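Ticket #4471: structure export looks truncated?
Reporter: QA, pipeline team
Priority: medium

Steps to reproduce: submit the single chain below to the structure queue and open the exported record.
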Amino acid sequence: MKILFVIDTYYTNNNGTSISAQRFAAELRKRGHEVRILTANDSGENDENLFSLRYFHMPIFQPLMNKHNFNFAKFWGKESLEVIHSAVEWADIVHSFLPFPLESVATRYANEIGKPCTAAAHLQAESLTANIGMHKIPCVNHWFYKLFRKLLFDHVRHTHCPSQFMADEVKSHGYPGKMHPISNGIQPVFIEAGKRHIEGHRTETFDEYKGKILIMMVGRLTREKQQALIIKAVPYSKYADRIQLIFAGRGPMQERYEKLGQNLPLKPQFVYVKRDELIRLLSQADLYVHAADMESEAISCIEAFATGLVPIIADSPLSATKQFALDERSLFKAGDAQDLARAIDYWMDNTEERLRMEKIYQESAYKYNIDNSITLFEEMLNEEISEHSKQ
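Actual output as written to the record:
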């Protein structure tokens, strides 16, 4: 089938939704589908897989958007509407990734001309309101969820949710239609790396990490991801002198986090690496910590335990990531640096148990293989096409 993905920012490696769109497009093409992307693209490059729109540079907020590596697409005007209409008319089905104006315009046009369409609920309102310090005000978050619903979700029958947590969350805000909890999925290379790890064939140890306890977190360096909490937890640990933190990602909080970590015995490292180098780093690590206050899934956490790491995860009520904890030992009280240090010390004190659980966690990652996710996603698209044809 001809599938149109609609997403404001597609080409970035620092945004989970964009990365998922890239991976789904690649995997669907392997299965013989045509996939094209309606997105903002000012590069001037001629890519037959893109329907390109101009960037919309937001007054006042554009510097913040740049820090997050995100741009809105220009969705109005004759030129933009011609591109949007051409893209929708080309497709057999339209799938929108975000609840923003571009996706709304494309979905409404699909409805107008009788094209089947679906959507994805990747974005938590709290992820937006955290940037303006209002994520703890329920009425503000509810207003955003209501806005998202009116822009996009009132106009589709089927919605892809990356977790059951997210499906329940949007349903609680009155979203209509059928929710499809489908993991965004991980690539097989992480599972293969984990098998080598468990079998004792770990990547050659980097000299700079010998004798150190390497703890990693992967994700954008933003307030809601709570990398600061991990830095604050280190002094409470009995292993503080040996703990080397590595944060893989970029974001607006990096400079602040660098300053926060200046007084640790081993200064945190901030890296931005490609997939193969990330796997090499994860293969060196002793533990993975995911401290985020809010997540719709957190693929980075799955990738970490797929490579053979025991995760320690915040038990935040706004995070789906806690679903991956196989028992209470992999959870800590969200926002509590001392409790995080307690969990770190437990796993480092109990080496044999940690090694045993590494194998169990690694095996639990198999069900998140992206191949399974693509099959479920195809089923959702076919269900919408079938229902649409009966109208």
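Status: closed, not a bug. The export was complete when the record was re-opened. Leaving a note from the reviewer for reference: The chain has a mean pLDDT of 92.
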